[in-house]
Specification:
single chain; 41 helices
């Protein structure tokens, strides 16, 4: 049996039922030759057959399939067919000669050809008319598809078969089946049996015989067919044929049936109903069915089923009620032995609406109650409404009968926002409106309603909208203008300030209107005019030359008229047109300003360029003429005077007006005199004004018009009297003439924008003024002119209470300003504490190791650099190197404060016995002690306090053993002026100083401690500056831009002139007060340092001073001879260091341990003094004066130095003299020694007295002014002062002025800022605040630093000025021992501290430092990697859930019921109907199995098939096995489209429907992926159907598929796919159950389940995992930075290290995992969105699951190398290092053996696969065999299965494998490693890093107080201590 049906694939044709027929003579080879194809058209299907047949054979071929050769009844059919025909082929058509009524064939009848059914050919396309005798016809090739009639019907040609819908012709002897689709039954229309046409069903495919007449007839069989087939879905009509006789036995009979299909039953149910409503359901059968043969089931859709086993009659009714709202599918299914009918309807159950809930109104982010909804006119607003209960609710908003908005929602009890658009509000208009809200659904009668009050609150909001967003289109202009018009309808209700705001908005809107109208204006295209009742707008675009040619006015209106003079070329642009803008107002737009008394018409004219830039027109030499109409209804006073005598008239003149007298004489010319008097009749001597008429002029009007402006009237207003006196000749007493006088009072004023008032400047009244028209002559166009200053936003302080009353609605700015004040107070406390700390830092530290007897002072300023780690904990020592000697080494320390901190400047006072002369350098070193010994020295400054000379030493280098040049000892030469003025030095010093002192914000935390500008004052200045900046910013925030202004473009920066002006104004407002405050604070002198009030001591005699100092010495001091000798030796030693000559006393001569004679030591000192005195006398060239006095002629500086030395020695000898007196003779071993010592001391003092006397007699004019003595340089208060310090600076009390300015400006700025914020509203305030904060931080971190850097570059390149440090008012820290003689013991100098570290010790320290650094680096690396591994494992296990295993196991076990190892197609259907459906649709709707897992979407059933005859049967077996179906592969997979039952003839029709289970869908369409099965890799496409949404529908779908043999012998794999979500464990599970089969027919069951978490649970673990992920990314970034540095250092050598490649692998895998994680998240969101929008369809989560699997694989492979890296971290362990080295040594041998092992594994696995692959599953594939052989090596092997297979051969193969692989190769492999390990132990060299481990362990043990014993340490304690040299030195200073 085969399918031979007329099923086509066109969408427009519903194909007929399938007809089954018996094939008796079909040529199989032809049918297999090539595939035919079908197309549908006009209710028929056409099959284009490529086979070659004769005409009769072709007709027989078509009849076998239920059709006939094609007919072409019309031109449309002809056009349709030729689209699919090959013009190179002939094609048979169904034309033949007509048969006679007795069925006799007559080929020669004229009019020969008809269609085969006997119908006439009404349309033809013959090449030529058919000739007589033509028996058939065809489409002729190469003729344009024309027809040709022919007599030769035996030619073989291609043909077209036609299958008519609803008609079937069955030839005798063939079986046929009529069948309808699902849910339909057959209805027989016409049927007959016999022969009506000779051309159908011929017994032989040859021309009919013409020799004999054939008498045939036919019988009507409709009744028989109806009784047999009517009402059935499938009917075998051969039984009817068999029961009938043959009416045409000679030619054979055929059966012709016309039928149609009809729905078997109807289901009637309401479409909408309410919850709990009783709903009738009616089922009606359309035909009579036999009782007992039909079983019907009615499903209501909510789980309720009604069984209709025995329907009574043809109709059945049931009732049902639903308990909850939803949409349900009501379905009825009827089945019998040969029928299946289904009908369904959808019913929507709704919940009735009860009452309204809360109703709110939302406008501009504000909420209102329903009774008072305030919104902005023509701006959208939302109404939030809800009802207490109800579903499918429709809300409507109406105003009377006008519908404003409506919306429908499903849940009525969920608040819903309904938007009223501006278009809807336009229907209402402004004002107060009553809106009605309606809520309804189809089950609620009547509908619910509620009221809503709508009010328009528009004033400030509209003004802000116009100001903030300039409009540029006519549509926007119209919207804004309408809103503003609505506001001003009742202008009297508005305050003056509100009227001003409206005025500004109106004028701005008009300006924007003009800009919009000019946007597309052509030059000289004529004006554009908009004219309304009170406002008129005029715009035009003209060339500059045509401005003066015609007046500017609005025709047919009362608008002003402007006449421009010829304007200079400097005013107008020469190369572009000019835009003319004019406005006309009938009412004063500035009525809020009551001054000016404006009652007439208002006109405005301005000129702009094409881009909107304003053209200033002012100070013209020729006036602009303006004509303004006077107000209608004003009275005109006209007087007629008789000039026979003097005539008088009275005139009332208002204030600020011009009096215009228009006179018309009876005769012209008529001379007369006019006198004007105030409050009295005027005379020649007493008048206000007087003139003679006529005046000069060209017209009578000009000659007889008198103009008097307010200046001419002398400011007088009120009643005036006018006297007219005619001027007559001599002797004439009177004249006969009359004069008409009209008095007009008017004024020409313009609106002054800068003063916001009306002004007359530059404008005057013209002589052409009449009672109806006022002529104004102005030299400028300033009606809407501008000034330099931009008017800021205005705020009314009188509305303070009103504005603060809105605090609850807009607390943003007030709260922000309040928080600033609170933060300021808190920061002020911190700043005060910092000031106290800084005070302690600025004192000069007097070094403790200064000799009390040394009186020459040097001030040291040591600047530590700003680099990271620049501070030091070491003990620093310095030596000054001078031209005349070097100082002693001095330890720079302060016991009361930390010194040498980062960026700090430390001051020290160092003393020497004498001046060192010109300093040549300094020597700095430290002992590398403490926790951070490295020190970065910036620069050092040394100042001689006696001469005030300064020396600078630029270092800018490290004193460290591991940084810089690795030196602890440096000699720094003095810097020259060129060194100081180098760009690098000046730039760095200027930048550092400006950032620390001049940058107001940064200096708060880094100000110089010595600055008098305190931290508290700086914080206050910053606070004031911030508030002032906020005030100026908010004042000009939102100022509308002038569209006429041109934008200036500077690259990426654009600004307008208005923005520039605002910036200048802001600076003028903000900076003066702030600069004043900063200047006051910075330049005010401290109160306690008034140096001008110091008292100067009177100079006393030198000896008396020394004596008084000596007398102050403690008399109880124990003096010994050794003490005296030491002091004398110290004097001698100091002399030897400071004298550039041979000294007889050396340090070795009086060294320790040697006996010293005091007289010998004194002799040495005495010799020095004498020699020095002689050297001085010799060096002085002497001259004799009149007094015979020898006067030295040395330089003054040298004399001063010699004097200082003499004074120093004299004081020292005084001290020795005192000690000798206290010691007495008893303290000497011999009395004469004491006497000699006393005498030596007295002699030396005498020499020094003479020397000092000599120096004191020098000519005073030749000596410089006496310097301050060392004692004078210190005050009692301990301050170091410069001379003349009292001049400069502000008095101390000015600080109160600064604080007053701070407080006042802060409170004023804060107060007005809050007012502006309250006025702005919340939304605008937030916007301003955000922009202000962004601008603030941009200024601090970008603009100001750039400013500092630019200034530093300028000063370094241009001025090159060196900033000197000012150490004025710096206090001393410590005791000044130089004020008296020696009253304290000297500090004992520790040799290790006062001598630089030896190179050997430095090298040891450097090595120890390197070892410590490596140890800490290793420890850091280990701890960091432990943290990294912890985070990685948290991330890895955080992505997994242990419940996933149990969820998968539960699902797998649930769906495995009824599964066997060998399942047939029937078993598969049985499993699907039982186990699959029962678990897929559990007891709870929407959940699988036991109700814990929610089914996400529908389930999907998919199968993969192979093509028919996909393989070749062996030739000898072809006759026994005709069909061959291959196993599944991608090459033979069937990807076609078919009809039901895999009907080939219908594939084209079905291919367009992607929902058909008979249509192949690709992997992309299904959003699936390829699946690895047990047997093959399966594509993700296939033939698909969905199961759901409930069990009934799924069961029906399976039944349908079973009846139509959806699964057959070509099926190779069946997939059941669905996704579930288990909320208990928060996991999605993507389930794939598939059964696969080879070509042998048995199905094997396999499952693939993947769990994924798309939504994280917000618990503690989730937060921990999320934090771990973030920290892990930070670790990755850190390791990338390290590897980047390493790669930069090693370059290509980096890639030769295995550990580097391992690190690189970890980084790449990590970022790959991040990318896949992001992709998984995006795919998950996409899939969930699809599910939420298509809940009744299958939701594919395969892409998400694939991404999740990839992520898990990446994390797993990431954990592998990360864990493997632990081996590298343990490299310092000796044993691990030994093992690593052994493996490296044996690596080449290991590689060779690995190759051998791989070869042998390949050999045995291939052999076993060949031997056992056909019978043992362990060896089924080569990969399985390889795994089995590897398992054999580790002892996992099944010997029995191979021995049972072939004992001898198996024993030989397996035995040889064990011997060669296990015993030989693997043992040799292990031996290679053992030998390498032994060799490595012999030749292994311990790593240098092993010592690092010991050191690290020692440090760790020391940290926890544990004693660490190094087993390798065999050194003695002295040597061991040597390793710590220089690490922990400490001072040992004894007082």
């Amino acid at each position: 049996m085969c399918h031979a049906a007329s099923v086509c694939c066109d969408r427009s044709l519903r194909c007929p039922p399938v007809l089954h027929c018996s094939k008796t003579s079909l040529d199989r080879q032809d049918t297999l030759k090539k595939a035919d194809f079908q197309k549908a058209f006009g209710g028929s299907c056409y099959e284009f057959v490529d086979l070659q047949h004769t005409f009769y054979s072709a007709q027989a071929w078509c009849e076998q399939r239920g059709g006939h050769l094609a007919f072409i009844p019309d031109e449309e059919t002809q056009y349709f067919l030729k689209r699919f025909l090959d013009p190179k082929n002939d094609v048979w058509l169904g034309v033949a000669p007509s048969a006679s009524p007795n069925l006799q064939y007559s080929p020669i009848v004229e009019g020969a050809l008809f269609w085969l059914d006997g119908s006439h050919i009404t349309y033809s396309n013959w090449v030529s008319s058919p000739q007589l005798g033509a028996a058939c016809g065809h489409i002729l090739r190469d003729s344009g598809f024309q027809w040709e009639a022919t007599r030769d019907c035996n030619q073989k040609r291609q043909f077209i078969c036609q299958f008519d819908s609803g008609r079937s012709i069955v030839c005798a002897g063939r079986n046929a089946t009529l069948q309808c689709g699902s849910h339909q039954v057959l209805m027989i229309d016409v049927g007959f049996y016999g022969r009506e046409n000779i051309h159908y069903c011929r017994s032989t495919p040859s021309p009919p015989s013409t020799s004999t007449e054939q008498q045939c007839g036919w019988v009507d069989v409709v009744a028989s067919l109806t009784a047999h087939c009517h009402g059935r879905q499938v009917c075998q009509i051969s039984e009817v044929v068999d029961s009938l006789g043959d009416p045409c036995p000679q030619l054979g009979s055929y059966l012709s049936v016309d039928y149609h299909c009809k729905d078997g039953l109807t289901l009637s149910v309401s479409t909408v109903a309410a919850v709990f409503e009783i709903i009738p359901i009616s089922v009606k059968w359309l035909f009579h069915l036999p009782q007992g043969n039909l079983s019907c089931m009615l499903s209501t859709g909510d789980g309720h089923v009604i069984y209709l086993h025995s329907p009574e009659g043809l109709e059945r009714s049931e009732v049902h009620s639903y308990t909850y709202p939803s949409t349900f599918v009501v379905a009825v299914e009827c089945t019998s032995r040969d029928i299946y009918i289904r009908a369904q309807n959808i019913i929507t159950i709704e919940e009735p609406i009860t009452v309204f809930g809360a109703i709110r109104c939302y406008a501009r982010k504000r909420s209102f109650h329903a009774t008072n909804c305030k919104v902005l006119y023509r701006e959208p607003f939302q109404i939030q409404m809800e009802v207490k209960a109800g579903t499918n609710v429709t809300y409507r908003i109406q105003s009377d009968e006008t519908l404003l908005s409506n919306v429908s929602v499903f849940r009525g009890n969920v608040p819903q926002n309904v938007t009223v658009t501006p278009e809807m509000m336009k229907q209402l208009g402004p004002g107060c409106h009553q809106l009605t809200l309606y809520a309804s659904n189809t089950v609620t009668i009547p509908e619910m309603s509620a009221g809503l009050q709508l009010r328009e609150k528009m004033l400030n909001v509209m003004i802000d909208a116009v100001s903030e967003t300039p409009i540029n289109t006519p549509g926007e202009v119209q919207v804004i203008a309408t809103g503003l018009a609505a506001i001003v309808l009742k202008g009297t209700e508005l305050s003056s300030s509100a009227q001003k705001n409206i005025s500004d908005a109106l004028l701005l809107a008009m300006s924007n209107t003009q800009s919009a109208l000019l946007a597309f204006k052509e030059v000289n295209g004529g004006p554009t005019i908009i004219q309304e009742a009170h406002i008129a707008v005029f715009v035009n675009r003209v060339t500059p030359g045509s401005l003066h040619t015609e007046s500017i006015y609005i025709p047919n209106s009362s608008s002003p008229t402007f006449s421009l003079p010829i304007l200079l070329s400097t005013i107008l642009p020469s190369d572009e047109p000019v835009d003319v803008r004019m406005l006309s107002f009938n009412k004063n737009p500035f009525s809020w300003n009551e001054s000016g008394n404006i009652s007439g018409q208002i006109g405005a004219l301005s000129l702009t360029t094409k881009d909107g830039s304003s053209i200033p027109v002012e100070n013209l030499s020729e006036d602009i003429k303006i004509l303004l109409l006077s107000p209608v209804g004003e009275q005109v006073n006209t007087s007629m005077l008789d000039l026979g005598n003097s005539s008088t008239t009275s005139i009332h003149i208002p204030a600020d007006t011009t009096l215009v007298l228009k006179m018309v004489p009876s005769n012209d010319p008529l001379p007369f005199k006019l006198l004007l008097g105030y409050m009295d009749y005027p005379t020649v001597t007493n008048n206000v004004a007087m003139t003679e008429m006529p005046h000069q002029g060209t017209t009578q009007e000009e000659r007889y018009t008198w103009l008097l402006d307010p200046k001419d009237l002398k400011g007088k207003t009120g009643m005036h009297y006018l006297v007219v006196r005619p001027i007559v000749g001599p002797g004439i007493k009177s004249i006969n003439a009359t004069l008409s006088i009209t008095s007009i009072t008017t004024a020409c004023k313009f609106w002054d924008e800068s003063k916001l008032e009306w002004s007359t400047y530059g404008c005057r009244v013209g002589v052409q003024t009449t009672p109806l028209v006022t002529q104004c002559l102005c030299n400028h166009l300033t009606s809407f002119g501008s000034s330099f200053f931009v008017t800021p936003n205005l705020v009314d302080p009188s509305r303070t209470a009103e504005l603060f009353g809105t605090f609850a609605e807009n607390p943003v700015v007030v709260c922000f300003v309040g928080s600033l004040f609170l933060a300021y107070l808190l920061v002020l406390v911190w700043a005060r504490r910092k000031d106290i700390q800084d005070t302690a830092k600025v004192k000069v530290t007097v070094l403790e190791d200064n000799d009390p007897m040394d009186e020459y002072r040097y001030l040291l300023s040591v600047n530590t650099g700003h680099r990271r780690g620049a501070s030091t904990s070491s003990q620093v020592t310095i030596t000054l190197l001078g031209a005349e000697g070097n100082s002693e080494p001095h330890h720079l320390t302060d016991p009361k404060k930390c010194v040498f901190e980062r960026g700090a400047v430390d001051l020290f006072l160092l003393t020497t016995p004498f001046s060192l002369g010109e300093l040549q350098g300094i020597r700095l070193w430290h002992n590398n002690s403490g926790s951070h010994p490295a020190w970065y020295v910036g620069n050092v400054m040394v100042q001689d306090l006696q001469t005030e000379q300064k020396w600078h030493f630029l270092c800018n280098s490290w004193l460290a053993i591991d940084m810089g040049d690795c030196s602890l000892d440096k000699i720094l030469p003095v810097s020259t002026e060129m060194d100081l003025k180098r760009f690098s030095n000046l730039f760095f010093m200027k930048t550092t100083k400006d950032f620390g002192d001049r940058h107001l914000w940064y200096s708060v935390i880094s100000r110089p401690p010595s600055s008098t500008f305190t931290c508290v004052q700086r914080v206050s200045c910053c606070f004031t500056l911030l508030l002032c900046t906020m005030l100026t910013s908010i004042m000009f925030y939102g100022i509308p831009k002038d569209p006429s202004e041109q934008t200036m473009d500077l690259g990426h920066f654009e600004f307008t002139w208005q923005q520039f002006k605002i910036g200048v104004q802001s600076s003028l407002i903000m900076f003066p007060i702030n600069i004043l405050i900063v200047t006051i604070f910075r330049n005010t002198r401290p109160r306690e340092t008034s140096c001008c009030k110091r008292k100067t001591e009177k100079p006393e005699a030198l000896e008396q001073t020394f004596f008084s100092q000596t007398a102050s010495t403690d008399m109880n001091v124990n003096v010994t001879l050794d003490t005296v000798i030491k002091d004398i030796t110290r004097i001698a030693h100091s002399l030897s260091k400071t004298v550039k000559s041979n000294i007889p006393c050396t340090e070795s001569k009086f060294g320790p341990g040697q006996p010293v004679d005091i007289n010998a030591v004194l002799s040495v000192v005495e010799d020095f003094i004498k020699q020095n005195h002689k050297a001085s006398d010799t060096a002085q060239p002497k001259t004799l004066s009149s007094g015979n006095l020898v006067q030295p002629q040395l330089p003054a500086e040298e004399i001063q130095k010699q004097s200082n030395k003499a004074k120093y020695l004299y004081r020292q000898l005084c001290h020795i003299d005192k000690e000798l007196i206290l010691l007495g003779p008893s303290g000497f071993p011999a009395p004469h020694s004491y006497s000699q010592a006393m005498q030596q001391v007295q002699d030396m003092k005498g020499h020094l007295q003479d020397q000092l006397f000599t120096f004191s007699c020098v000519n005073p004019d030749e000596l410089p002014q006496k310097k301050l003595s060392p004692a004078d340089s210190t005050e009692g208060g301990g301050s170091l002062k410069k001379r003349g310090c009292c001049h400069g600076g502000l008095p101390w009390w000015f600080v109160f002025v600064g604080w007053l300015l701070v407080i006042s400006s802060s409170f004023v700025a804060g107060f007005f800022t809050m007012l502006y914020g309250l006025k702005f509203g919340k939304e605008r305030s937030v916007s301003w605040l955000v922009s202000m904060i962004i601008s603030f931080f941009q200024s601090i971190f970008v603009i100001q630093p750039l400013k500092v850097l630019c200034l530093a570059v300028f000063f370094a390149l241009v001025t090159k000025k060196i900033d000197e440090e000012d150490f004025q008012n710096v206090a001393f820290e410590g005791n000044d021992r130089n004020l008296g003689c020696k009253d304290q013991k000297l500090v004992r100098r520790e040799r290790s501290l006062y001598e630089p570290p030896p190179p050997a010790d430095v090298e040891k320290m450097r090595r120890n430092m390197i070892m410590e650094q490596k140890a800490f680096a290793l420890l850091k690396e280990i701890l960091t990697y432990m943290g990294f591994m912890w985070m990685l494992l948290l991330v890895a296990y955080g992505q997994r859930d242990p419940n996933a295993f149990f969820l998968k196991q539960h699902i797998r076990d649930s769906f495995s019921g009824g599964i066997s190892d060998n399942m047939s197609l029937g078993d598969v259907f049985t499993w699907a109907n039982t186990s699959l459906l029962s678990n897929l649709f559990g007891v709870y709707p929407g959940f699988i199995t036991d109700g814990n897992s929610k089914l996400v979407g529908n389930a999907r059933l998919r199968q993969l098939r192979v093509q028919k005859n996909s393989c070749q049967t062996a030739g000898p077996m072809l006759q026994f096995v005709p069909d061959c179906q291959a196993a599944y592969s991608w090459e033979v997979e069937d990807m076609g489209s078919y009809g039901p039952g895999w009907s080939q003839s219908a594939k084209d029709n079905i291919s367009m429907s992607t929902n058909s289970p008979w249509t192949y869908q690709t992997q992309a369409q299904l959003r699936a992926h390829a699946v690895w099965g047990t047997l093959a890799l399966y594509r993700g496409g296939g033939f698909v159907t969905e199961l759901g949404p409930d069990s009934q529908n799924a069961s029906s779908t399976l039944e349908y598929l079973f009846r139509n043999t959806w699964l057959d012998i070509y099926t190779r794999a069946i997939f059941v796919e669905f996704t579930v979500y288990n909320a208990n464990v928060n996991l999605f599970c993507i389930v794939t159950l598939f059964l696969e089969t080879t070509a042998v027919g048995a199905f094997q069951f396999t499952t693939e389940l993947h769990s994924v978490r798309l939504y994280q649970s917000p618990d503690g673990l989730y937060i921990l995992v999320m934090a771990a992920e973030i920290v892990y990314l930070l670790f990755i970034v850190y390791y990338m930075f390290l590897q980047g540095q390493l790669m930069k250092q090693q370059r290509w050598a980096y890639f030769r290290s295995r550990w580097n490649l391992l690190e690189l692998t970890i980084i790449l895998l990590s970022w790959s995992a991040v990318a896949v994680f992001i992709k998984r998240t995006l795919l998950g969101n996409r899939d969930m969105t699809y599910y939420q929008n298509h809940k009744e369809k299958f939701a594919s989560f395969y892409d998400t699951g694939k991404a999740d699997s990839t992520l898990q694989y990446l994390i797993a492979f990431l954990v592998l190398p990360a864990t493997f890296k632990l081996w590298h971290l343990l490299r310092l362990n000796p044993k691990m290092n030994l093992m690593t080295a052994a493996l490296q040594r044996a690596w080449s041998d290991i590689t060779n053996y690995l190759v051998i092992i791989v070869i042998m594994l390949l050999a045995y696995s291939i052999t076993c696969n060949v031997l056992y692959g056909w019978q043992l599953s362990s060896y089924r594939t080569w990969l399985d065999a390889l795994i089995t052989i590897i398992s054999l090596q580790i002892g996992i092997f099944n010997y029995d299965e191979v021995i049972d297979c072939n004992p001898v051969l198996s024993g030989l193969i397996i035995g040889s494998c064990i011997v060669f692989m296990t015993f030989v190769v693997l043992n040799l492999f292990v031996s290679v490693i053992i030998i390498a390990f032994k060799q490595e132990r012999i030749y292994h060299k311990p790593s240098d890093e092993e010592e690092i481990v010991d050191l690290m362990l020692e440090k760790i043990c020391g940290l926890f107080g544990i004693r660490y014993n190094d087993p390798k340490d065999t050194l003695g304690p002295d040597v061991k201590r040597g390793r710590e040299v220089g690490l922990n030195n400490s001072r040992n200073i004894h007082n």
